Amino acid sequence: MNLIEFPLVDKTITNSVISTTLNDLSNWSRLSSLWPLLYGTSCCFIEFASLIGSRFDFDRYGLVPRSSPRQADLILTAGTVTMKMAPSLVRLYEQMPEPKYVIAMGACTITGGMFSTDSYSTVRGVDKLIPVDVYLPGCPPKPEAVIDAITKLRKKISREIFEDRTVSQQENRCFTTNHKFCVRRSTHTGNYDQELLYQSPSTSEIPSETFFKSKSSVSPHELVNQTRSTFMFLLHEYDIFWAFLIISSVIPILAFVISGVLAPVSEGPEKLSSYESGIEPIGDAWLQFRIRYYMFALVFVVFDVETVFLYPWAMSFDVLGVSVFIEALIFVLIPIVGSVYAWRKGALEWS
Fold first, then answer.
1. Could you tell me whether strands 74-78 and 134-136 are parallel, antiparallel, or unpaired per DSSP bridges?
2. Confidence (pLDDT) at 197
3. What phi and psi, each to the nearest 5 degrees, are found at residue 31?
4. What is the pLDDT of residues 47-61, one digit of tens each?
5. Nearest 5°: phi and psi at 77?
6. How confident is the model at residue 199 (pLDDT cuts 50, 70, 90)?
């Protein structure tokens, strides 16, 4: 039953047997469940993507967007097609099952658009690569135009004969899997590198004397030297990593000590000047007061450890030494001491 040509059949005739052809039934099922492939290379795809939303709701036409060409039977070529993208587009089209349909969406897809005159890499029309069923002009076409193109495609599908469609698609292929291979002179010389063909014997084939001899071939002194050289290599090769690890381990301890020294030393009320906001830590508030010191100091630690290695003079860390660590520690401790002192004066009171 062709509901495109007879839209009122199911409304006027109820509880009846309707005769139809297998061809019409096949066309009706295909036009009612077109699954488009999500393919977009330019701005036209934004207009197509808006169809997925609730405003235009193209699901009412049975369209279900798919991300795999093997599950799609419709492709909207939305956007510019370049020479590099052309083989991929043809490959996607060939991976779609038969029967399949193509809608050329936008001026760039149909004729090359604004790139048709001076561009050296734009395909002047996607129909030079794959057969097109519906041409949709515009720059870019509105979502309503896309719906109109899909409606016209549905009408075209409703009048198709399945056998003719399959034959025409097989005859009008733009790409075939029967590739022609060029016959070239053989490079086989008969000589092979014996080292590449060497296979080490299994453990069971190795004599026990050879095995224990190889086990004891390295003396303890040589083993210590190898370990030392490996350690020195790691130390010099990853010096920035070790510097970051040491600084990030030392600074929290120093921040903890500095916070404890500058924090109030008694649980009684604290005498404050007139310009200070002040805190009187008593009981549980005393513990919270100390914890806030540590939290605030550690925030500055993380920030300044990153700043040390992003600072321009951090490039001078080619050779690590005591002076480099002292310089880095001073650089990190200055804002920590300043922040804790500002907290101590009440400028950063926890509300």
1. unpaired
2. 41
3. -70, -20
4. 877 887 778 777 787
5. -80, 90
6. very low
8 A C-beta contact, residue 342 and residue 261: no
Cβ–Cβ under 8 Å, residues 82 and 59: no
* 126 closest CA partner among 149, 147, 108: 108
CATH code of the domain containing 38? 3.40.50.12280
Residues pairing with 103 in the sheet: 76, 134
Length reported for the chain = 351
Question: Which string of b and e fits 188-215 if b means at least 16 CB within 10 Å?
Answer: eeeeeeeeeeeeeeeeeeeeeeeeeeee
How many domains are there within the chain? 2
Residues facing residue 75 across a β-bridge: 37, 102
> Which of 121, 144, 171 marks a domain boundary?
171
Tokens 């002047």 locate to: 124
Residues 6+ apart with CB under 8 A from 233: none
Ranking 154-163, 288-297, 314-323, 336-345 by mean pLDDT, the lowest is 314-323
Same domain for 102 and 238?
no
Nearest to 139 by CA among 102, 104, 108: 108
Instruction: Looking at the chain, list the stretches that DSSP marks H as alpha helix, in order from N- to C-terminal side.
Output: 9-12, 22-31, 44-49, 86-95, 107-110, 143-158, 162-171, 208-215, 220-237, 239-262, 284-310, 322-344
3-state secondary structure of 32: coil
Beta bridge partners of 122: 82
The residues with which 105 forms a beta bridge, in sequence order, are: 78, 136
Residue 333 maps to a domain: yes
pTM above 0.90? no
18 and 164 share a domain? yes
Give the residue from 227, 220, 230, 300 showing the smallest Cα distance to 259: 300
Residue found by looking up tokens 């997925």 in the block: 52
> Is residue 96 within 8 Å of 58, Cβ to Cβ?
no
